[in-house]
Amino acid sequence: MRLPRFSALHLTLFLGASLAAAQSSTQNQPHPQPGATWTVVLGGQVGQYTARETDSDGDSAGTTTIGGRALTSFVIHMDDRLRLQVGDKSGSWLCDVPAAGLQPGTRDLTGQAKINLRNQKRTSPVGTCRISTRALPARAAVPWSAVSSNLNWEMDTPEGVIAVRWPKLGQLGIWGKAPVSTLTDASASGQVLPFTDKNGLVIGMLRGSSKANYRFCTVGQDGQNEQGYLTGRYVDSTSEGTPKDIGACALRPATNPVPVGVSSVPTWPLQLSQNQVWEMGLPQGTFVGLTGNEKTADGTLTGGWLGPQLGSLEITRFDVATPNQGVLFLHRTDQDDLLACRVMQSVDFALGIRRDQFEGPGIFIDQKVKGDAISLKSGGQVEPIGECWVRRLETPLVTEALRF
User: Signal sequence: where (predicted)?
Assistant: First the structure.
């Protein structure tokens, strides 16, 4: 059976009347010609829109590859905005760029992200989104030889993106806030000393005037990645006590434009706020979600999920101020079916034994908070479906534009 073919406008109307808007030629708006590739940032993730054709309404139809899936997409030209619509049969993620941001020649666009689930007939804001009208450049693998030959780096850490610059290994350089192009002696936050030992590369960053207050990114030769960065561990070292592992670090040449999401080591109670990116692992697959700029009257954070299935996001605390307090991470479909990961401070370690999962060494390995997976079909009963995990991702893609 052949399915009817819809134009971008027809699909927009089908997904909900609130999405409809008058079309116009709006010649100032950029338009991807068939075969063109744009880079997009939705939900804290980088994706690629590839245009297939221009439809009868003058809009572009194509595919966006993001979150491990290839999703049907449109670039829709409206009187008051340009819209990127990325979706499946259950609904769409939208990136609306207002007309004021559509000046001739503009290549980097910033808009408002929204998620629309078909049967809920409403849109929910999900933070900022970005579109670049050019393809993301290919990232070459970083050979180990680049450690000594490259002098300018950017580093993703649980404390944000850091720019580092040094004259050569074994000599003092400077570090400060990224991007590295703005790093000068006047704007640097401290000194950096890079050196190699038998295990790999060590980057020591002096924080302030105290000679005993350092952060280290330690990168082994086995931390090379074909996607253009090196990975290691981020360690806090002071003159008092044992050095503390506080998460992962990822080092990339400063010309490599895409920051790598790095997880921080979680602590209890979980720190929840707006504009956060979370991963959630369920038996159904791995979802990545972004909390938006809004929350409900009871403090529940809302947003959207990308992954095996689009869905709205809710994160809420339960049994607050009791020994049984925990956090629910909810994925809601357009049919009001729920998937959830329920996490608590303690987990079952053995038969009849529960332990604090935040005090064991396992939390430093993958930064995953373990929990119980739950399924609730609309109108049905709560059903346990196995184990789950969540972890927060640290990525400047939520607040910073792509640099390339």
Answer: 1-22
Token couple for 121: 């007939």
Tokens linked to 156:
């993703």
DSSP conformation letters of 369-399: EEEEEEEE-TTS-EEEEEEEEEEEEE-GGGT
Are residues 134 and 402 in contact, defined by beta-carbon separation less than 8 angstroms?
Answer: no
Q: How far is CA 198 from CA 169, 202, 276, in A?
A: 14, 10, 37
DSSP conformation class of 144: T
The predicted model scores a pTM of 0.79
pLDDT digits (tens, 9 = 90+) for 291-338: 988 888 889 999 999 989 899 999 999 999 998 999 999 999 988 899
Strands 369-376 and 190-197: unpaired
Q: Taking a C-beta distance cutoff of 8 angstroms, is the pair 370, 134 a contact?
A: no
Tokens 């038998």 sit at which residue?
Answer: 198
Strand ranges, E, within 158-239: 160-165, 173-177, 190-197, 200-206, 214-220, 224-225, 229-237
Strand partners, 282: 285
